[in-house]
Design brief:
four-stranded antiparallel β-sheet; alpha/beta; 2 domains; Rossmann fold; four-stranded parallel β-sheet; 36% helix; Ribulose 1,5 Bisphosphate Carboxylase/Oxygenase; 12 strands
Amino acid sequence: MDTLGEPQKVTRARMKCCLRACLDQWANLPGHKSSDTLEISFVLKNYDTNTYPWIHESLRLKYTPEIKVNVCILGGEQLCKEAKDQGLPFISSRGLRSIMKKKRLIGKIADKYDVFLASPAIVQRIPQSLDAALSRVGKRPFLVMPGESLLDKISETKVVVRFRSKNFPYLSFPIGNMDMELQKLSDNLEVAIDHVLSLLPLQWDNVTSIHIAPKNGTWVPVYS
Protein backbone atom coordinates (compact mmCIF):
# COMPACT_ATOMS: atom_id res chain seq x y z
CA MET A 1 0.00 0.00 0.00
CA ASP A 2 1.43 3.36 -1.01
CA THR A 3 0.84 5.04 2.32
CA LEU A 4 2.71 6.31 5.33
CA GLY A 5 1.39 5.57 8.80
CA GLU A 6 -2.37 5.10 9.05
CA PRO A 7 -4.21 4.45 5.77
CA GLN A 8 -4.57 7.56 3.61
CA LYS A 9 -2.95 9.92 6.13
CA VAL A 10 0.02 10.77 3.90
CA THR A 11 0.70 8.84 0.72
CA ARG A 12 4.12 8.68 -0.86
CA ALA A 13 2.57 10.10 -4.01
CA ARG A 14 1.36 13.06 -1.95
CA MET A 15 4.83 13.58 -0.50
CA LYS A 16 6.44 13.65 -3.94
CA CYS A 17 3.79 16.04 -5.24
CA CYS A 18 4.53 18.44 -2.37
CA LEU A 19 8.27 18.08 -2.89
CA ARG A 20 7.92 18.94 -6.59
CA ALA A 21 5.95 22.03 -5.60
CA CYS A 22 8.79 23.05 -3.26
CA LEU A 23 11.43 22.42 -5.92
CA ASP A 24 9.51 24.48 -8.50
CA GLN A 25 9.00 27.26 -5.97
CA TRP A 26 12.67 27.25 -5.00
CA ALA A 27 13.82 27.44 -8.64
CA ASN A 28 11.95 30.75 -8.96
CA LEU A 29 13.16 32.30 -5.70
CA PRO A 30 15.57 35.24 -6.18
CA GLY A 31 19.10 34.39 -5.11
CA HIS A 32 18.38 30.71 -4.49
CA LYS A 33 21.38 28.46 -3.83
CA SER A 34 21.95 24.72 -4.10
CA SER A 35 22.84 24.69 -0.39
CA ASP A 36 19.40 26.05 0.59
CA THR A 37 17.69 23.64 2.95
CA LEU A 38 14.28 22.04 2.80
CA GLU A 39 12.51 22.42 6.14
CA ILE A 40 9.70 20.40 7.68
CA SER A 41 7.30 21.87 10.24
CA PHE A 42 4.83 20.03 12.46
CA VAL A 43 2.03 21.76 14.34
CA LEU A 44 1.11 19.64 17.35
CA LYS A 45 -2.13 19.36 19.33
CA ASN A 46 -3.50 17.45 22.34
CA TYR A 47 0.03 17.31 23.72
CA ASP A 48 0.09 18.31 27.36
CA THR A 49 3.65 19.34 28.23
CA ASN A 50 2.78 18.92 31.92
CA THR A 51 2.06 15.24 31.29
CA TYR A 52 4.40 14.41 28.42
CA PRO A 53 8.07 15.42 28.15
CA TRP A 54 9.30 18.23 25.95
CA ILE A 55 10.61 16.76 22.73
CA HIS A 56 14.40 16.85 22.46
CA GLU A 57 15.58 14.33 19.88
CA SER A 58 18.26 13.26 17.43
CA LEU A 59 17.08 11.87 14.10
CA ARG A 60 19.28 9.92 11.71
CA LEU A 61 18.10 10.65 8.19
CA LYS A 62 18.82 8.42 5.21
CA TYR A 63 20.71 11.12 3.31
CA THR A 64 22.81 14.09 4.46
CA PRO A 65 20.48 17.11 4.93
CA GLU A 66 23.06 19.91 4.85
CA ILE A 67 26.09 20.55 2.68
CA LYS A 68 27.98 22.82 5.07
CA VAL A 69 28.11 22.14 8.79
CA ASN A 70 30.29 24.18 11.13
CA VAL A 71 32.08 21.72 13.41
CA CYS A 72 34.12 22.38 16.56
CA ILE A 73 36.28 19.78 18.29
CA LEU A 74 36.54 19.71 22.09
CA GLY A 75 39.46 17.57 23.08
CA GLY A 76 42.69 16.67 24.69
CA GLU A 77 46.08 17.04 23.08
CA GLN A 78 45.78 14.17 20.58
CA LEU A 79 42.29 15.01 19.34
CA CYS A 80 43.13 18.71 19.04
CA LYS A 81 46.27 17.83 17.06
CA GLU A 82 44.20 15.76 14.66
CA ALA A 83 41.70 18.61 14.34
CA LYS A 84 44.51 21.08 13.65
CA ASP A 85 46.00 18.79 10.98
CA GLN A 86 42.59 18.69 9.28
CA GLY A 87 42.14 22.46 9.50
CA LEU A 88 39.21 22.13 11.91
CA PRO A 89 38.46 24.58 14.74
CA PHE A 90 39.04 23.15 18.21
CA ILE A 91 39.05 24.05 21.89
CA SER A 92 41.59 22.31 24.10
CA SER A 93 40.96 21.16 27.66
CA ARG A 94 42.92 24.21 28.83
CA GLY A 95 40.77 26.44 26.64
CA LEU A 96 37.62 24.94 28.13
CA ARG A 97 38.82 25.76 31.63
CA SER A 98 39.55 29.36 30.64
CA ILE A 99 36.00 30.05 29.42
CA MET A 100 34.19 28.64 32.46
CA LYS A 101 33.06 32.04 33.76
CA LYS A 102 32.82 33.93 30.46
CA LYS A 103 29.08 33.70 29.83
CA ARG A 104 29.09 35.91 26.74
CA LEU A 105 31.87 33.87 25.12
CA ILE A 106 30.10 30.63 25.98
CA GLY A 107 26.96 31.89 24.24
CA LYS A 108 28.94 32.88 21.16
CA ILE A 109 30.59 29.47 20.95
CA ALA A 110 27.24 27.68 21.27
CA ASP A 111 25.76 29.83 18.49
CA LYS A 112 28.75 29.76 16.14
CA TYR A 113 28.98 26.01 15.56
CA ASP A 114 26.36 23.53 14.37
CA VAL A 115 28.04 20.40 15.73
CA PHE A 116 30.47 19.66 18.55
CA LEU A 117 32.59 16.52 18.83
CA ALA A 118 34.48 15.46 21.95
CA SER A 119 36.28 12.50 23.47
CA PRO A 120 34.53 10.72 26.38
CA ALA A 121 37.12 12.03 28.87
CA ILE A 122 36.57 15.63 27.77
CA VAL A 123 32.77 15.31 27.89
CA GLN A 124 33.07 14.53 31.60
CA ARG A 125 35.14 17.68 32.13
CA ILE A 126 33.17 20.19 30.06
CA PRO A 127 32.37 23.19 32.28
CA GLN A 128 28.79 23.09 33.55
CA SER A 129 28.07 26.52 32.08
CA LEU A 130 29.09 25.41 28.57
CA ASP A 131 27.30 22.07 28.91
CA ALA A 132 24.10 23.90 29.88
CA ALA A 133 24.45 26.32 26.97
CA LEU A 134 24.95 23.50 24.46
CA SER A 135 22.04 21.53 25.92
CA ARG A 136 19.71 24.53 25.60
CA VAL A 137 20.35 24.75 21.87
CA GLY A 138 20.37 20.99 21.29
CA LYS A 139 24.10 20.77 20.55
CA ARG A 140 25.52 18.42 23.16
CA PRO A 141 28.76 16.92 21.78
CA PHE A 142 28.89 13.72 19.77
CA LEU A 143 31.43 11.28 21.18
CA VAL A 144 34.63 10.48 19.30
CA MET A 145 35.86 7.14 20.61
CA PRO A 146 39.57 6.22 20.71
CA GLY A 147 40.71 5.03 17.29
CA GLU A 148 37.77 6.57 15.43
CA SER A 149 38.53 8.66 12.36
CA LEU A 150 37.64 12.28 13.01
CA LEU A 151 36.59 12.91 9.39
CA ASP A 152 34.46 9.75 9.33
CA LYS A 153 32.77 10.84 12.55
CA ILE A 154 32.03 14.27 11.09
CA SER A 155 30.48 12.66 8.00
CA GLU A 156 28.37 10.47 10.28
CA THR A 157 27.06 13.43 12.29
CA LYS A 158 25.98 15.27 9.13
CA VAL A 159 23.20 12.70 8.68
CA VAL A 160 21.91 13.40 12.19
CA VAL A 161 19.41 16.22 12.76
CA ARG A 162 18.70 17.44 16.28
CA PHE A 163 15.42 19.11 17.08
CA ARG A 164 13.36 20.12 20.08
CA SER A 165 9.95 21.58 20.89
CA LYS A 166 11.22 24.97 22.06
CA ASN A 167 8.41 26.88 20.28
CA PHE A 168 5.53 24.59 21.17
CA PRO A 169 3.27 23.61 19.40
CA TYR A 170 5.66 24.02 16.44
CA LEU A 171 8.40 21.51 15.67
CA SER A 172 10.69 22.36 12.73
CA PHE A 173 14.01 21.11 11.36
CA PRO A 174 15.87 20.63 8.03
CA ILE A 175 15.45 17.38 6.11
CA GLY A 176 17.41 18.03 2.93
CA ASN A 177 18.98 20.35 0.40
CA MET A 178 17.17 21.72 -2.60
CA ASP A 179 19.64 20.19 -5.06
CA MET A 180 19.08 16.65 -3.76
CA GLU A 181 17.30 14.11 -5.94
CA LEU A 182 13.54 13.91 -5.50
CA GLN A 183 13.68 10.32 -4.25
CA LYS A 184 16.29 11.18 -1.62
CA LEU A 185 14.18 14.09 -0.38
CA SER A 186 11.15 11.80 -0.30
CA ASP A 187 13.03 9.17 1.72
CA ASN A 188 14.20 11.79 4.23
CA LEU A 189 10.70 13.23 4.49
CA GLU A 190 9.25 9.80 5.21
CA VAL A 191 11.89 9.04 7.85
CA ALA A 192 11.22 12.41 9.53
CA ILE A 193 7.45 11.94 9.66
CA ASP A 194 7.72 8.36 10.93
CA HIS A 195 10.20 9.35 13.64
CA VAL A 196 8.20 12.30 14.95
CA LEU A 197 5.02 10.19 15.01
CA SER A 198 6.86 7.56 17.06
CA LEU A 199 7.54 10.22 19.72
CA LEU A 200 3.91 11.25 20.08
CA PRO A 201 1.69 9.30 22.50
CA LEU A 202 -1.40 9.71 20.28
CA GLN A 203 0.54 9.75 17.01
CA TRP A 204 -1.67 11.32 14.28
CA ASP A 205 -4.12 12.58 16.91
CA ASN A 206 -1.27 14.79 18.16
CA VAL A 207 -0.70 16.34 14.72
CA THR A 208 -2.64 19.33 13.39
CA SER A 209 -0.58 19.74 10.23
CA ILE A 210 2.70 19.00 8.48
CA HIS A 211 4.25 21.47 6.02
CA ILE A 212 7.48 21.62 4.03
CA ALA A 213 9.19 24.61 2.44
CA PRO A 214 12.47 25.69 0.86
CA LYS A 215 14.52 28.34 2.64
CA ASN A 216 12.71 31.71 2.37
CA GLY A 217 9.85 29.96 0.57
CA THR A 218 6.16 29.41 1.22
CA TRP A 219 5.00 26.43 3.27
CA VAL A 220 3.43 23.59 1.28
CA PRO A 221 0.90 21.43 3.21
CA VAL A 222 1.73 17.72 3.29
CA TYR A 223 -0.96 16.96 5.85
CA SER A 224 -3.61 19.24 7.31
